[in-house]
Amino acid sequence: MDVTFPIKQIVNGDGDLVDASYKDKLTKDFVTKVYQKMLFARMFDRKCVNLQRQGRIGTYVPFEGQEAAQVGSAMALSDDDWMFPTYRDHGATLTFGHSMRNVLMYWNGRYEGVLPPKGKNIFPPAVPIASQLLHATGAAWAEKKKGTDRVAMAYFGDGATSEGDFHEGLNFASVFQAPVIFFNQNNGFAISVPTARQMHSKTIAQKALAYDMDGVRIDGNDFFAVYFTALDAVEKARNGDGPTLIEAVTWRYGAHTTSDDPSKYRDQTENDVRRETSDPVTRIERFMKASGMWDEALDELEKKASEEIEAAVGEMEKAAPAELNHLFDYVFETSPWPIREQKDHYLKSRGVNA
Amino acid sequence: METATQTLQKQLTLIQAITDALDVMLSENEDILVLGQDVGQNGGVFRATEGLYEKYGEDRIIDTPLAESGIIGTSIGMAVNGLRPVAEIQFFGFIYPAFNQIMTHASRIRSRTLGRFTVPMVIRTPYGAGVRAPEIHSDSMEALFTHMPGIKVVVPSNPYDAKGLLIASIEDPDPVLFLEPMKIYRAGRKEVPEGKYTVPLGKGNVLKDGEDVSLFTWGAMVPLAMKAAEQIEKEQGICCDVIDLRTLYPLDRDLIRESVEKTGRVVILHEAHQTGGVSGDIISLINDTETAFLSLKAPIEKVTGFDVPVPMFSLEDHYLPKGDGIKQKIEHVYNY
């Protein structure tokens, strides 16, 4: 193939600014805010893994290593836009304004867990792989029909690109020029299966060519490459210039889920190398230190983030037990007789008043 | 209750009544749109959307790429975001690529989000055998969807019901699978009121009142049931209570109960495969409704398609229920 998709990078793993054209945009205030959000995402993720180990939540899907991809893409959205995440994207949903308590509730098996604050357009995490690309396309298409400038961002992994719904999503978005951003996090593995078994293509970004769509490949561990690329794609969509496919090349340090053992399918010492050479959080810290932005006060951030997270965990843990009404009352707007009777019968059998 | 705001009538076939229902709703509510393969300029392969593209334009009568999951998946996204899509799947036998979208999303988004996000959409699709169609075009897999929590399943059998049920389906706040019996798309014209009226979902209809045997059926089997009932009444004086169920989820329990209490003898007729068919749910409903169960004077009989793939058309007449088979079962339960 003649067309190549080089990886775009702005700040490398050592914290060096490699694209000087962005120098003025990386102000101390902005970079400090970014660092805070990135640190927070990492701490939240680590806390959840611990909570699972302690039996305080169910199976958890960690994203450590993918913080730049998730936080950077989410920060490119405006308040009224739509987000269609997967089950690994709580770094993105929290950045976009999801409730921390509710995200924790989700991993505790609670329906409340998918509810973002009122008015926030965050869809429930897609579990069937790639199915959400079509919802994002449909929601974005609806915005276009309504004549708004809102956009939708769909999240998905490398494995999702093998699904039919990936292709149908890109194709519909292309045909109808829907204002949607397809944000791929290529972390190298679909559970245990490496990208070489998902595709013979050299990149995911190149798949955009088939839909006459812009495809961009970026260092997904470089917050700035993610943020500015996503921002361009969002603006393009907002201006009516159609969809974009972004491939953010990243790496998950941990397991697919807390039920998975990655040492069975890959050499985990690779993590040590990557933490030193390409970590998304460390590189911002290095960049800040090298450019004189590091402030001793930042050492306090960890404590503050930890307090916020602990508070949310406390809220999750003191939530009243799941309501039985949630089991029955939301299948239809008005429950038909089979559900009404099954509910009544069950409640009576449990000695509960309806 | 059935409501009619207009009393003017016109003579329409079942498929024309469907077009009329779409037209009425498209003109009333700008959020409603029709999408599917060939629904635009071509007016649909059966002409269900004829004239709508010219009247409402390509932004509302939308020819989509040939991708069933894509049609349903993007419709879900639009419905969640405030529009009211009416999606057409060209033949029921082609709905399977969209099954995941219907099962894991359309039917459960309300549950998953405790009502925050909902999917008010209709999936229209022609179904059933008997028109000498190519392979896979003749399936009747309604039971896959009655088993699925969170979606209603509706099947009209005449032009009046087709229009009223489709309007009610479009107005329903939840997803509805609307199955159109293609064998009787043009089986004859019937009087259909102009303008808007609804036939409520979840309500069956007594087509012929009788005291001896209840005959429950739906869709393209309705004319067959009526013919068998008329013949057996003339030939043997057995008087059937013929009931068109019209909605397969939720079933009209009251109507089924009343009929069984009256007759005590039941034959269920459907063209879908026997095992796992909706007939099993009707039998279960009678079993669970004490007054109906205790009224039974004979084991319930079924007339259904076989547990074989719907065959190529050289054999489809053997696959489909036939009048003599229905009459035999009626006679059997009557004389039991």
In a few lines, what is going on in this structure?
Chain A: GO terms for molecular function: pyruvate dehydrogenase (acetyl-transferring) activity. The complex is a heterodimer of chains A (354) and B (336). With 354 residues, chain A is of the alpha/beta class.
SSE blueprint and pairings:
The complex is a heterodimer of chains A (354) and B (336).
Chain A: H1 28-53, H2 67-75, E1 82-84, H3 90-96, H4 100-107, E2 121-122, H5 131-146, E3 152-157, H6 164-175, E4 180-186, E5 189-190, E6 193-194, H7 195-198, E7 214-219, H8 223-238, E8 244-249, H9 270-277, H10 280-290, H11 301-318, H12 325-328, H13 337-349
Parallel strand pairs in A: 1-2, 1-3, 3-4, 4-8, 7-8
Antiparallel strand pairs in A: 5-6
Helix pairs in contact in A: 1-2, 1-3, 1-10, 1-11, 2-3, 2-8, 4-11, 5-6
Chain B: E1 3-4, E2 9-12, H1 14-28, E3 32-36, H2 52-56, E4 61-63, H3 68-80, E5 84-88, H4 99-106, H5 109-112, E6 122-127, H6 142-146, E7 152-154, H7 159-171, E8 176-181, E9 190-193, E10 197-198, E11 205-208, E12 213-217, H8 221-236, E13 240-244, E14 247-249, H9 253-263, E15 266-273, H10 278-288, H11 290-293, E16 301-305, H12 316-319, H13 323-335
Helix pairs in contact in B: 1-7, 3-4, 8-13
